[in-house]
Amino acid sequence: MKIFRWERGRQKTHYSKLPLVILGYENHNRLPIIGFLDCLLLKFPPGSFIGKHKDSVEVENPDGSIDRYAHYRLNIVLKKSRKGGQFICESNHSNWSLFNRIFFFRSDICTHRVTKVMEGTRYVLTIGWGNFTKPFDSYTPMVKLYNKSTDS
Question: What local confidence, expressed as pLDDT, does residue 133 receive?
Answer without folding.
Answer: 63
